[in-house]
Amino acid sequence: MKMTREEKYRLIEQAEPGELAQLQEKIANCPWRQSYHIQPPTGLLNDPNGFSYFQGEYHLFYQWFPLGTDHGMKYWYHTKSTDLAVWEQLGIGLEPGGKYDSHGAYSGSAIEKDGKLYFIYTGNTRDEAWIRHPYQCLAYMNESGLITKMDQPVIPEVPPGYTDHFRDPKVWKKADTYYCVLGAQRVDQTGCTVLYQSKDLLNWEFKGEIVTRLPEFGYMWECPDYFELDGRGVMVFSPQGLDADGDKYNNIYQNGYVIGDPLDTGTREFAHGSFEELDRGFDFYAAQTTADPDGRRLLVAWMGLPDVEYPTDTNGWAGCLTLPRQLILKDGKLLQQPVPELAKLRKAEKRTKMSVSRGVKHLEGFDGTAYELICEVPSFDAKTFGLELRAGGEEKTILQYDAEDKKITLDRSLSGQTMGEINGQVRRCSIDADTIKFHIFMDTSSVEIFVNDGEQVFTSRIFPSPDSREIRLFSTNGTAEFQIVKWDY
Ligand code: FRU
């Protein structure tokens, strides 16, 4: 049920008596609660925020509206981990409701300075006429985990030339200077990113727009991120307003990256190549990265999208985060690989080899709803081959490689409860390879598929019945040799 504006912009303590208990009860009866992904205790999860490594632990926050699945009053929910595999749920990180974040503590990022972890985030406010006024705010966490918000915003206004869609600061440090990029909308309704600079995180100087090769590319860019990897500059962002173009840009909003020479922070020139989507599945948005002490560049995203209804809405919750992935730069492209630490979640292991000729075979003894599966197909002469996942009754989620047109397809039209009909229930992309490896992370209501060690990734929510547990292999017009290893999670 849709909430009124008044209902949406309530703090937790303004919940009606029994309201939270009622939500918790609905959630307890939901068949689609995840078993190893980060998900909200109640209400809505959206963007990952403040992803960082601080004093021996990874910290990862997310946008959280506790009281419902609408986009209402956003908090930062706090989780942390020593190994990127098991996350401790710590509750509220940043609480909105102050003068400069009266209508939500919106997305932002974290950086360590002088033994504290600083957060820069967007304070969302609305005035009486419901006009939005964004402020960029600062908070910090001390070594005992106590988080304090600063009284005054550090970027109190939107510079001329931009609308009130001005948010999601991502901070980094180079030499002795802090930089931050923000997602912005120009007054002519096109999206871009702007750059700020600071010596102390408190005083920020507006430098201007990052000069990209995409002057007209959608109406708003959300959640920008900038980092350098192997001497190249990478900008990740979530543009809104792109039209679908064949296999590309099929979701309501996109999330992708451009790679180029490192950003010139003086001229703000960023000479980059084409925009590439990070993910080819149905549910992926607002990715945020961090560097860890080993120098790895790690990425987490929201396994969901704005303005999409999810079947769990009626169960009182929605959204989860993707698994953490490491970014690798290869031949001018980003590969995403699940972090090796996830192996800690592995339980019972099963292996098999199977040759499938023109037909479908149930992998006996491999049924499940939460597992990691590696499926390699070193040789084949079939036209198409692949897997039917979470299969049972009428349901199946189909992952297929077509050797003739060299495309991977993910079809969720029979995955269970359907949703988000926009651009249909099939996503596909080309892959240039002679052998195929699918590395799959299945959870109760999601699947993440890494193709050929992260050359392409399909991340999607699915809502099958708990009884749809089979894994089946198939081939058409020939034979495919499958090598399978699976771990229960
Ligand atoms: C992206 C986004 C951000 C904003 C946040 C609010 O999903 O719209 O731009 O900061 O969500 O929750």
Description:
- By secondary structure, the protein is mainly beta.
- The chain has 2 domains: 5-341, 5 Propeller (Tachylectin-2, Chain A); 346-488, Jelly Rolls (Sandwich).
- Helix content is 3%, strand content 51%.
- The protein has 2 helices and 31 strands.
- It has helices at 5-8, 19-28; strands spanning 43-54, 57-65, 75-81, 88-94, 105-113, 116-126, 132-141, 147-149, 162-174, 177-186, 191-198, 204-209, 220-229, 232-240, 256-260, 276-277, 285-291, 297-302, 317-318, 325-330, 333-338, 349-362, 371-380, 384-392, 395-402, 407-411, 426-430, 436-443, 446-451, 456-461, 470-488.
- Strands 22, 23, 24, 25, 26, 27, 28, 29, 30 and 31 form a 10-stranded antiparallel beta sheet that branches. The chain has a 5-stranded mixed beta sheet with strand order 4-3-2-1-19, with no helix packed on it. A 4-stranded antiparallel beta sheet has the order 5-6-7-8, with no helix packed on it.
- The longest helix has 10 residues, at 19-28.
- Bound molecules: beta-D-fructofuranose.
Short description:
The chain has 489 residues and is mainly β. The chain contains 2 helices and 31 strands.
